Amino acid sequence: MFEKFFYVFIKYIVMYTLIDGKATAAAIRREIREEVDYMRHSHEKVPHLAAILVGHDGASETYVSGKEKACREVGFESTVIRYENTITEEELLEKVDQINRDASIDGLIVQLPLPEHIDEQKVIESIDPKKDVDGFHPVNVGRMVIGLPAYISATPAGILELIRRYQIKTEGKHCVVIGRSNIVGKPMSILLARKDYPGNCTVTVCHSRTRNLKEIVRQADIIVAALGKAKFLTGDMVQEGVVVIDVGITRLPSDKTKSGWKLWGDVDFETVAPKSSFITPVPGGVGPMTIVSLLRNTLLAAKQAIYK
Ligand code: NAP
Q1: Which among 17, 55, 68, 231 counts the fewest CB atoms within 10 Å?
Q2: Which residue from 220, 291, 304, 296 is spatially nearest to 66, judged by alpha carbons?
């Protein structure tokens, strides 16, 4: 009996590596800070990120203030341009055009979602690809697909960086990506299949119309879960030694927290972690890497490292 508990205990403690996104993001912020300090001391222009925020959506306000705070921490300049919901598409496009031509600004993000009367795709496409540090412009997406230097959108870039820093082997592995959104699932599947590291995976993309999802997922060496359904992936759906990247964030009511809610990932950590070799927690996994990736893209923009 004791022996059984001992082995279960050891398996739980030793068998998997927790991918610490919070610590990794903090380390990257320090690295960026050092580079910015060097730029400042050398009298070079420091990176400048501009964000346009339309309306008063609570989540968008939180994201933008998080980005502002992150800019301050690493010594970037940041500008937030706020508009009421009543702004017209034309006025917004004019502002984007003005920022495109402003040499003092290196990167521009337009916080989504935008009000219904504004065509989001039109706005995204109006941003100069050289300043599109969110990596949403079709030029950057296209360049990423064919393997040219490009701004890679923040969440996929953050996941690649975690894989790199934890030296997770990807070559020849079967990776199953659950979700096919333009901001996570689709770019992740392309990036993991590219001829590079991290990459060289055989990738299967699953979505809401996938049949036999359980059987497919059970064959995965690497799983990227990005569907937004709390605790969707359970222990019985994964094979031993799997690498699990949990992108999902679902906020559910909880009577155990002060705030009255708790964040859940797409992965049932309790049952999946003991079978994993590497796993990201929620919170503290992919989430903290997202803003840091935006900072890295802005630094690349300031150094004109993507578009020479
Ligand atoms: P999304 O646009 O809603 O896409 C969800 C995808 O999951 C869709 O492709 C959908 O399939 C698929 N899906 C839904 N239910 C499914 C099911 N039962 N089985 C298989 N596939 C299913 O979401 P997203 O923007 O990619 O975000 C996904 C999750 O990641 C969300 O929880 C979001 O909050 C989180 N997220 C986290 C970060 C971060 O920084 N950590 C960043 C971005 C997103 P269809 O295409 O067929 O509809």
Answers
A1: 17
A2: 291
Atom of ligand 1 nearest to the CA of 207: 21
The CATH number of residue 191's host domain is 3.40.50.720
Residue 152: is its pLDDT beyond 70?
A: yes
- The residue with tokens 């504004």 is 118
Report the alpha-carbon distance of residue 161 to residue 167 in Å, rounded.
10
User: What pLDDT is recorded for position 3?
Assistant: 57
Mean pLDDT rounded to a whole number for the chain: 95
Ligand 1 centre to CA of 180 (Å) is 7
Structural domain for 221, as ranges = 153-289
The H or E element that residue 59 is part of is helix 58-74
Do 155 and 184 form a contact (C-beta atoms < 8 A)?
yes
Let me know: does 253 contact 219? Beta carbons within 8 Å: no
Catalytic residue selected from 134, 221, 246, 266: 134
Residue 224 maps to a domain: yes
Residues 249 and 139 both lie in one domain: no
Residue 304 in domain? no
Average pLDDT over residues 269-288: 97
